[in-house]
Amino acid sequence: MGQRGNEKVIIVENLTYAYPTSKDFVLKKVNFEVHRGEVLAILGPNGSGKSTLCKSLNGLVPHFYGGRYGGKVIIDGQEVLNTSVSQLATKVGLVFQDPEDQISGLALTVWEEVAFGLMMLGKPKEEIRQRVEEAIRYVGLEGLEKRSPFELSGGQMQRLAIATVLALRPDVIVMDEPTAQLDPIGKFEVLSVIEKLANEGSTIVIAEHEIEEVAYFADKALVLFNGEVIAYGPVREVLRKVDELKSIGIDPPSVTELAHAIKKELGLEAEYPITLEEAVKIYSELLGVS
Amino acid sequence: MSVGVSLLKKTAVEADTFVQRLDGRVKFLYFLWATVIVYIFYDPYLNLIFVAVTLAMAFYARVAKPILQTLLIIVVPWIAFAVPILALPFGFPWNKTIIGYIDVFGNKYPVYLEGLGWGITWPLRIAVAISSALLFFLTTNQAKLVATLFKMKVPFKLIYMVVATFQFIPLLAKEAETILQAQVARGLRTDVGFVAKIKNYLSVVIPLTLSSLNKVQIRAITLESRGFSAPVKKTLLYEARLMKIDYIFLSLMFVSTAVLAWVYVNIGYSPIAGLSWIWGG
Question: Terminus of chain A with fewer CB atoms < 10 Å: N or C?
């Protein structure tokens, strides 16, 4: 879990948005806040507006897409509507779903790829070198610096994408389903890096299908359905709403579902676990096993 | 994967030779210079000398194979196709000097110098342009290429377009292959006649176009998110700087230009082959 501070890094107020090609709004009066060091998980079925919400945090919505936009998104005191995407690049780092989509096309090696954003922002050479090496080490890609980004595995490529974002040292890291296109090993590699970031106090917003994994490090969760916020609050409270989540196509962690089923079928009142470790502890106590 | 695609997939070959060490601007200038010189003169032998010099540098820099492959695909068929047509009667409007006869099924046909000269000179001019351009691309690594173009005051967006194209064409080819396999799996027949084949390939071209447009948009989003449009001076990790070897190469080009200018004035535009001038030559 993140080391939560009192400072609000993200404030979203009544955010409403429709793409220029669509008459329907994909986000409807969305409200939430993220404090420094917090991890917010955005949950929701396909088409619920998760990706659009992610893109609204770094200004791609509305600056890049256009469309009808209402409400406010404030990142570290700056209103997104009045700040360019390139200015926001140092405040919000966005990791996309498909790792291949994030490759700049101008870099031949992993090292150059990580350096790309810093070069675009005109950082001094020495600072670039230092930051690139740090970011590569952080995501565990040492030894692959001279490899072409296109020769990496899915998990390695997604870690590279995270490194490109980390190198910019943003206030907030936004990840749009970063493990959606990865195999189990790739997912494990990427989630390990995210968990490390979360534990070290980074502010993270992550849209994810893998609720079981996110439950380990998220502080808060926000559930979107058809562009509306269905639930928002501490992750434990949100994941307890098993029936509501399942009714919109979201599967809560298996251990939470099990506790819910036991309560429903047997009337057994017990705290809802959200991770396997918690479940073992709770049921051990219930069964009197030390 | 076709030869063309595999060629594009090739990036600069890293080797420690003087060709790789030459500044990108000097190699780019060599490409422009050679292309202009062979256009000013009208002499296939001179063109061959330029091709030979360029290929010698390419061999030394270990990039001759892709250049030869390209010349084989583009220039050789052109010569093989154009020369027999142009050199024979009615093949070329300026044909007048007969240099021999060929026997085709018992009929004797005259071979004309003008058509033959034109048919060989033009593809060789293209060969000079292609080989010198490829020498530049294949011996200048991407970082140096970007720095070179940047120093030449080429707008950064244009630099990106040039450099990224070389990286993304192989990806597009891979995508086209995937789409083709998917369509074949859904019943698209490829063992049909030429016309039907072209028609069938529309089912690859249309999804490929749509997916490419989508990819372009995603790429634009990615770049934007990584500060591509930031209104600051970009930092380049490599600085293009002229060295001693560059000045020597530039001097050689300068001396060659002076010699060739003397040749042009005193001997003419076709100093070795002695071709007579024709329109479009």
Answer: C
Q: Of the candidates A86, A107, A119, which has its C-beta nearest B236's C-beta?
A: A119
The domain tally of chain A equals 2
Output the domain CATH number for residue A226. 3.40.50.300
What ipTM was estimated for this complex? 0.77
One-letter amino acid at B94 equals: W
- What does the block give as tokens for A116? 């790309």
Q: Angle A50-A46-A68 (CA atoms, 0-180°, nearest 5)?
A: 50
Residue B79's nearest CA partner among B101, B51, B100, B37 is B51
CA distances from B118 to A178, A182, A272, B104 (A): 59, 58, 86, 22
Count interface pairs A-B at CB distance under 8 A: 93
A169 touches chain B (CB under 8 A): no
User: In degrees, to the nearest 5, what angle opens at C-alpha B38 toward C-alphas B36 and B41?
Assistant: 110
pLDDT of residue B2: 40
Say whether B222 and A96 touch across the interface (CB within 8 A): yes
Which helix (H) or strand (E) covers residue A129, if one does?
helix A125-138
Per DSSP (E only), the strands in chain B are 98-104, 107-112
Classify residue A36: in a domain, yes or no: yes
Range of the domain at A282: 253-290
Question: With contact defined as beta carbons under 8 Å apart, do A16 and A216 qualify?
Answer: no
Percent of chain B at pLDDT above 70?
Answer: 94
The pLDDT tens digits of the residues spanning B113-163 come to 888 888 899 999 999 999 999 999 889 877 777 888 888 888 888 888 877
Domain locations along chain B: 1-140+242-281, 142-239
B170 burial class (0-12, 13-18, 19+ CB within 10 angstroms)? middle
B141 touches chain A (CB under 8 A): yes
Between A154 and B259, residue with greater pLDDT:
B259
Per residue in A199-232, pLDDT tens?
A: 888 999 999 877 888 888 999 999 999 999 999 9
**Do A41 and A87 reside in the same domain of the chain?**
yes
Prediction pTM value? 0.73
Instruction: Check if the beta carbon of residue A105 is closer than 8 Å to that of residue B219.
Output: yes
One domain for residues A239 and A274: no
